[in-house]
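User: I'm new to structure prediction. If I give you an amino acid sequence, what do you actually give back? Let's try with this one:
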Amino acid sequence: MSKTPWGWVLASALSLACSSAGSGGGGTGGSGASAGAGASGGSAGSGAAAGSGGGNVGGSAGVAGSAGTGGTAGSGATGGSATGGGGGSGGSGGAEACGNGVDDDQDGYKDCDDDDCFDDAGCVTKEATELKAGDHTPCGKPVTFADALSVQTCQGYGMGFQKTKCAFGKFSGTITFLCGPKPAAGQKDSVLVRWKVHASIPQEKVGSMPVLYEPIGGEYAWQSGGGSSINPRHYTFDLVANQLEADFVGYEKLTVPAGASGGDLREWFTLNSFSPPAVFIGGGFTVTIDMNALRAGK
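Assistant: Good question. You get back a string of structure tokens that encode the predicted 3D arrangement of the chain. For your 298 residues, that looks like this:
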């Protein structure tokens, strides 16, 4: 999908048809350019003088008739000029291929960093491997969340590291799961949680200065622990009427203690401003993870 276009290619063409000079003379008048042929001159009379030259530029004098006055050569028609049509505007590139190292659709992002590839199976597998979860496979059903849950999760933030700015931006998205190999009895389990989120974040004025926040980074809470998150892993954005429209992907690899079936994951998204520097918790989601249900496709 194209976000902010990088440029356009413009083309135009111009063609001009040039007139040709007609040939004069007592005979047939010169034909004009593509616009049409000149009129035929009159037949020579008896006892004629030489015919007068043709009306076109460059015509030669007519040959004298055998007798009488030679006919006047017809004027060649005026050649018309034709202007070529303007070239069409250049289009954007083709659809994004998700593994060729090229920005095919020319939107500034390529391969798995392009939001057209956020759901690509090859990208998901590649990223799971990079997160040391290459043996994890898709499990369970996707879970969607709307902005209402994002606001509720933000308001429940209790880590104490950041101030909150709940309901300032809007967050919604889809959560999917990749389960690790089923462990032997008494062993820990593992799940890779993945989310794809859309955020709409308005511009804010601090005094006379406009401030724009980006949803970069976050925090999470799981079981009795948690901490800072290095997400998002992929992030694209566009500015629409002074509002940031962003799409991003993030992951958490969670360990499920032996004998436990899961718990609630709370993920928070931060809003970051670089001028002036500021960080707030702006949204997030809460999802219940049940390993037995996930492996059963629920």
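You can read the tokens as a compact description of the fold. Here is one thing that stands out. Residues 4-91 have pLDDT under 50 and may be disordered.
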